[in-house]
Amino acid sequence: MIRIRCPFCGERDHSEFTYGGDGSIVYPALDAPMEDWVKAVFERENPRGRQLETWHHTSGCRAWLLVERDTMTHEIFSVRLAHEGAGRVIEEGT
Amino acid sequence: MVHRLASGGRIDRAQSLRFTWDGRTMTGHPGDTLASALMAAGEEVMGRSFKYHRPRGIMSAGVEESGAIVTVGAGDRRDPNVRATTQELYEGLTATGQNAWPNVRFDAGAVLSLFSRFFAAGFYYKTFMGLPPFEWGKGTGLWMQYEKLIRRSAGMGTASRAPDPDSYEHAHGFCDVLVVGSGPAGLNAALTAAQAGLDVVLVEQDFELGGDYLNQATEAAEQTRAELVAQLSAAGARVMTRTTAFGLYDYSVAGLLERVTDHLPAPDGALPRQRFWTLRAKRTIVATGAIERTVAFGNNDRPGIMTAAAGQTYLNRYGIMPGDRIIMATNNESAYGPAADLARAGAEVTLLDARAEVSDELKALAKANNILVRPGTAPLNALGKPAIDGLETVTADGTGWRPGEVENGDLILISGGWSPVVHLLSHRGLKPVWDAANACFVPPESDDPIHTAGAAAAIWRGEDCEASGRAAGAAAARALGKSAPEEAAPGPGGWATPIRPLYEVKLPGKKLKSFVDPQNDVGTEDVRLAHREGFVSVEHLKRYTTLGMASDQGKMGNIVGLALMAEALGREIPEVGTTTFRPPYTPISIGALSGRNVGSHFRPLRRTPMHDWNLANGGVMTMAGLWHRPWFFPRAKEGKTEAYIRETTTVREAVGLCDVTSLGKIAVQGPDATTFLNRVYTNPFAKLAVGKARYGIMLRDDGIVMDDGTTWRLSESDYFMTTTTAHAAKVMAWLEELLQTRWSDLKVHVASVSDQWAGAAVAGPKSRAVLEACLEDSSVVSNEACPFMAVIETTLKGGIPCRIARISFSGEMAYEAYVPSDYGPALMDLLWAAAKPLGGCLYGLEALGALRIEKGHVTGAELDGRVTIDDAGLGKMASTKKDYIGNVLRKRPELLRGDRPRLVGIFPKDRAQTFNAGTILCKADAVSGMGEGWITAVTHSPALGHWIGLGYIAGGHEAWQGKTAVAADPVRKGNIEVEIVSPHMYDPSGERMHG
To answer: Tens digit of pLDDT for each residue in B81-109?
Structure first.
């Protein structure tokens, strides 16, 4: 039972969230070459250890989160909003 | 003779409880378990073994029980495979023996044990899955027949076939510290943590708190126990008895099973039978104690053989003298206390100690209680049938054994050492480590927020367990920022003279039937056979022999099995390792797992605001995902087929109304909404005018179709998107993901408004007339004001705000009208009052499907997550002038192949025939394998006068012109010849909806 500290809602069970995927991927531009899209969509790492991943607070505030998690121990190192602007406002107040 | 003593124990002799065992009425007392009551009543045989039907009796006094496995309750409350040793006695309890006929005392199946030498590990599979040398019967066909017979003779109890009459609950809790176990360690740990100011939950699987305190005869033990319990309550700890911590999970989350009414004569209707707790603790203290092991020797499974601690428990806790002449066999110090208690209570006790040396302290204790101690002696073979009357022994001979004397006695008590209950740690992936000095696996060091205390940490002496409990409680308190007294935690051990590891006793040349896992009838020879056949890993050993796979999960016998395997391999136990314990620690009922999520509460039910209106107007409902939607509206004696054919015809000829509220609806708003939609949809949205709707397709990143629907432009920056019913939630999450993770520069907000708007489709040539009659200003729906794909915001009669778009799923001139949800029934009232006089009808999902299949419109069955926009025949909607999600990867070469399955229409060649959705489409001369395609949807088409289908087939309909395909449906309709046609089977030019 993973517990995730949502920046809006506080610490909640993972059952409120939906796992998204690898949060480190920068998706290519819509007109980028095929190779870039193949790499982004299909060529994924499957690390044991720390991974940045996206989670959606589906049954909560609906925020998409960037969660840094250890895939073996489930330890969570950091949680922040995926939305850059909103994340900055929450963390830095501007 | 086994008998209840006149005094002593924790039972209430002033009250009697009547219960029945195999149809015979007996009595016990409050405080008894079923096992203690049966023992006091003189019962010896309580079960029959799994394979050989050997008689079995009580082997323990706890959850590790492997012999007294019975069925409790009758009728719809029949609960099989209950451990009699943990079942609390109540007035009117009904228990029966299992795996026996006619009963456990005389079991016809016992004849099987005469052939036991044939029933070695893997016997059934070796014998019945193909008979060498001819190998006839190879394969699964014949095996399936054998298996039915085998299962009947080998088995456990039988569950009730009736629905479970009880209710179960799920509950959630939080605390600072969870303490599992209420023995000397657990009580002290909980008290220390609670007194440090922490919120403590203490769980105990027994119905009384105290653990090993309850097994002691002294008043001092009871006084200590009572004081601890009182102080714990005063310190504000929450105490849960009859509650098992069955699993420990990430983040110190524990699964608890609370047995609420299993001990009550008549279940209280207001209470659940069991409660399944998810408890989130900050730290966990495991004070789960240890389980005494057995030793493998001849006939060690006979009724009248149990653990030494069990003998003490039945005497001290239940006031039963378990035997008059007791032979005890031990390899460690722990049996001396029970021996002394039993001797003091009047039994004649002989104590065989496998160790050559016994400490002076123990010698003195034995002497003072008239216990005859035989050092260097071990049990070889139990004698007597059915009742025990003696024991063949062996005496030490160097490192081996030689035949010894025969001891006479009516009860054999065994102590083969102790196994700490490390299960909860194992659940967390913490591998226990072998402690050679104490001959047991002990908890490892770890960084987890878990402390171990007492016998669970291989601490054997009572006062050391108390100290280790206090130390664990204090450590947990300090870890949570509270101050607590410092106290050194005792280490493992505590015996003056060491244990002599002893797992099996045998003599060369003497054949013995020695059991390792009695419940599954796994013997020492089975372990050795598995080794000879190459199963050298403990995990393979377990699966091949079924060692440790019974309901006790190897609590008593696993270590013995590991030791035998280690011996066979010539290795040490830690090199062989142990199997991983997984939750649950003890069995939990399926009912507790499902809780209240049963029957109609199995999953959420969604109803539209028009639900009652639909029912009042004769609608028959069906499930569509979580939604309850109208299926058809039968008139007179119509069945489903007659009704939907009439409804379809009425829509084509006049007008029909259909509740379409379940469609997903999303408000897409903001200055960049147009840019956003233009990236999400494959077709252009940049130039969609205000007051217009457009049908759109959206793809996934990988170029596969995700969903379709219409999106309405209400203003410059305000769109109303509709999705399919099935994908509403997925599309919403997808839009949020794009906006929040990829395009956070776009000023767009999306909100689900599915529940805010109720909608109805008005379809058919007379649809405009119906709307005109319902609107305050009927001119707004004229062909000029509201042409095909127009959107208007207007008011219905009575001032009801309404959004209308002229869009068509049926292929007729049609509109979708949405009103705020509360006006849903009012919308239907207005529309129906107008449509009825025009010869209109209400239609449901079945007619909706027929209409769209005739038109070749796709829905969830066609957009199944495998098809491209070209496969679905919608390639012309993929813009070449802009970029959108999926436009790169949809052009992967494999996805552009011309022979991919394409959407087609399907006619039966003989128009009188029909076929099923899900059928495989094959070439006429190659009806096998995966075929060339498949059928997604089938309906009778009133417009065409025969059955039609939609589906996919390689190359699409152009590739099949003039060719016959076969709809192959071997287990239902058989093979039917079909024609492949264009998916646009009715009004292909679309004149009707534009008209």
So the answer is: 999 999 999 999 999 998 777 777 777 77
For B25-49, what is the mean pLDDT? 96
Query: Closest Cα of chain A to B260: distance in Å?
Result: 25
**Contact residues, chain A, for B679 at CB < 8 Å:** 30
* Distance between CA atoms of residues B718 and B733, nearest Å: 19
Q: Is residue B995 helix, strand or coil?
A: coil
Closest Cα in chain A, distance from residue B776 (Å): 39
Percent of chain B with pLDDT over 90: 84
Longest dimension (CA), chain A: 41
Interface of A with B in 39-78 (CB under 8 A): 40-42, 54, 56, 58, 62-64, 74
Three-class secondary structure assignment of B588-634: CCHHHHHCCCCHHHCCCCEECCCHHHHHHCCCEEEEECCEEEEEECC
Residues in B touching A41 (Cβ below 8 Å): 701-702, 889
Q: How far is A91 from chain B (nearest CA, A)?
A: 16
Convert the pLDDT of each residue in B230-289 to its tens digit.
999 999 999 999 999 999 999 889 999 999 999 999 888 899 999 999 999 999 999 999
Residue B842 has pLDDT above 90, yes or no: yes
Residue B116 confidence (pLDDT) above 90: no
Picking from B168, B165, B159, B164, the residue whose alpha carbon sits closest to that of residue B260 is B168
> Beta strands B372-375 and B433-435: pairing type?
unpaired
- Torsion angle defined by CA atoms of residues B880, B881, B883 and B884, in that order, rounded to the nearest 10 degrees: -70
Chain B contact for A19, CB < 8 A? no
Alpha helices (H) in B672-740, listed in sequence order: 673-680, 728-737
Q: Which pTM does this prediction carry? A: 0.89
Place of tokens 């495998």: B866
Report the run of H or E that residue B747 belongs to, with start and end: none
Coil, helix or strand for B33? strand
CA closest to A84 among chain B residues: B744
C-alpha B650: how far from its chain's center?
48
Mean pLDDT of B452-480: 97
Give the pLDDT mean for B516-527: 92
Residues of chain B neighbouring A57 (CB-CB closer than 8 A): none
DSSP B98: -
B498 preceded by cis ω (within 30°)? no
- In this predicted structure, what is the pLDDT of residue B158? 85
Give the number of A-B residue pairs with CB atoms closer than 8 Å.
Answer: 69
Place of tokens 């940045």: A52
| Closest alpha carbon to B7 in B34, B24, B29 | B29
Question: What local confidence, expressed as pLDDT, does residue B149 receive?
Answer: 65
**In chain A, whose CA is at the least distance from the CA of B255?**
A1
ipTM over 0.95: yes
Q: Is the confidence at residue B119, as pLDDT, over 90? A: no
Closest CB to A1 among B253, B742, B884: B253
Contacts of A27 in chain B (CB under 8 A): 701, 742
Q: How far is A31 from chain B (nearest CA, A)?
A: 6
* In the predicted structure, residue B134 carries a pLDDT above the cut 50: no
What one-letter code names the amino acid at B274? Q
Answer for the pair B735, B752: CB distance below 8 angstroms, yes or no. no
Indicate if the pLDDT at residue B129 is higher than 90: no
CB contact under 8 A, A74 and B250: yes
How confident is residue B133, by pLDDT bands cut at 50, 70 and 90?
Answer: very low
Best mutation target, B250, B252, B740, B752, to test chain A (most A CBs within 10 A):
B740
Question: Token digits for B56?
Answer: 């079995």
Alpha-carbon distances of B186 from A16, B451, B460, B470, rounded to whole Å: 34, 11, 14, 9
Which residue in the set A32, A54, A84 is minimally distant from B888, CB to CB?
A32
